[in-house]
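Section 5.1 Outputs to date
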Amino acid sequence: MNLNRKIMDTLKPLGVPVAFGNYNQTANTYIVFVEYNQASRMNADDDELITKHFFQMDVFSTGNYLQLVKDVKSLMKEAGFGRMFESETYDTDMKMFRKIIRFNYENTIGEI
């Protein structure tokens, strides 16, 4: 299983559109995510044993999305992702609230 699929499956119970990279913005609430970095976490004998993946998740909504954000963080934690960063803004062009959450995930080479 790749990590993009893992994230999509993890967030599916939320009942809002979840997209990798971009979304066509037809819904009032949706989630977009990207992997913005990968780094070697553990090496032995010049071989990478564990890779650390870094994801940014953007939750967009025209209304109150506090419970959705709480549910995203809970589901991602249950799936083995660690939260690293969180920020909030309002996009005046889109007229939407935006919650930015960054997560990391470590996997053993060959696991995914």
